[in-house]
Amino acid sequence: MKQVQEYLLADAEVASLKWSKLWETRADRTRLLLVAYMGFVTQMCGNALISYYLTIILDTIGIKDTLHQTLVNGILQIYNFVIAISGALMVERVGRRRLWLFAISIMLISFILWTICSALFAQSGNSNHALAVSVLVFIFAFQLGYAFGITPLAFSYPAEILPFHARQKAMGLLIMCQNAALIYNNMVNPIAIDAIGWKYYLVFIAVLAQWLVVAYLFFPETKGYSLEELSDLFNRPIMQLRNHPQFLVQEVQVDEDNKNTTIVTQHIES
Fold first, then answer.
1. What is the DSSP letter of 218?
2. What angle do CA 183, 185, 188 make, to 5 degrees?
3. What is the Cα–Cα distance from 185 to 254, expressed in whole angstroms?
4. Among 49, 114, 172, 245, which residue has the least CB neighbours within 10 Å?
5. Residue 225, domain CATH
6. Total structural domains in the chain?
7. Helices 26-41 and 227-234 sit at what angle, rounded to 10 degrees?
């Protein structure tokens, strides 16, 4: 009961903090920038294209029958559900950083191949059935990466890298950035696909490529580390974020008679 009361008091104190507290230190600014970036990029990587405009994509590869479009969409949703559960179960086993890099790599490779097949299909006069099927395969491959890695991490990972005092407002910023990206997707995607077709996919390939670089350089591993340990990591130069946190461990010898303590050995653990 005491812990619950302490948490409620701390939560009330956090709610009254000013927004300026979110960027007081360099570590705070780094975390806030990463959270805003993740909110934006998780909705600008091409997933919204599939979620909201799958029927338009299917139209571009000759699948225009309503029954077939509904069937593809239904299978894709069930597939996403199963893959997302599998990914959530793997987060604690493989770690967050590896899951990020695996998922983004799968999405990038799939989107490149999807774009190539779409371009070849258009050049064939929309008559090559094998290329249309290939596009479908790579759409499912893209969703494998997104559902397996991004779905479990999109909210849990930002919360893990944030200190307690910043979590409430920073997660609100994350959602605002996601909504800003969704506004773009809803307004621009259908017009762009109709105007330039597969060439518009190059935008998402560029987004995925830079996301892979950013994730490799700046997404630290959070598995097995406390908030205090992660705070120490964010206090270091930004280019060291991809390294595992390392901490000084001291082995102390206590003299019971004189009540003195002596450091016997000290070493670094990661």
1. H
2. 100
3. 63
4. 172
5. 1.20.1250.20
6. 1
7. 100
Query: Of 42, 60, 22, nearest to 164 (Cα)?
Result: 22
Query: Which structural domain, as residue segments, surrounds residue 149?
Result: 2-239
How many angstroms separate the Cα of 105 from the Cα of each of 16, 24, 41, 110, 183? Answer: 41, 34, 14, 8, 26
Buried b (16+ CB within 10 A) or exposed e, 214-250: bbeebbbbbeebeeeebbbbbebeeebbeebbeeeee
Query: Residues 6 or more apart from 69 whose CB is under 8 A from it?
Result: 54, 55, 58, 63
- 258 part of a folded domain: no
CB 41 within 8 A of CB 104: no
Could you tell me which of 111, 106, 143, 114 has the C-alpha nearest to residue 131?
114
Q: Is residue 249 part of a domain?
A: no
Contact 209, 98 (CB under 8 A): no
pLDDT in tens, 115-141: 999 999 999 988 899 999 999 999 999
Distance CA 136, CA 69 (A): 11
Rounded Cα distance, 220 and 114, in Å: 30
Going by pLDDT thresholds of 50, 70 and 90, the confidence category of residue 243 is: low
Q: Is 189 exposed, middle or buried (0-12, 13-18, 19+ CB in 10 A)?
A: buried
Q: Is this structure's pTM higher than 0.90?
A: no
Taking the C-alpha atoms of residue 233 and residue 11, their distance in angstroms, rounded to an integer, is 25
26 contacts: CB under 8 Å, gap ≥ 6: 235
Q: Which residue has the tokens 């894709």?
A: 76
Distance CA(120)–CA(118), nearest Å, equals 5
**Chain segment 142-201, per-residue pLDDT in tens:** 999 999 999 999 999 999 998 888 888 889 999 999 999 999 999 999 999 999 999 999
Residue 264 lies in a domain: no
d(CA 181, CA 236): 30
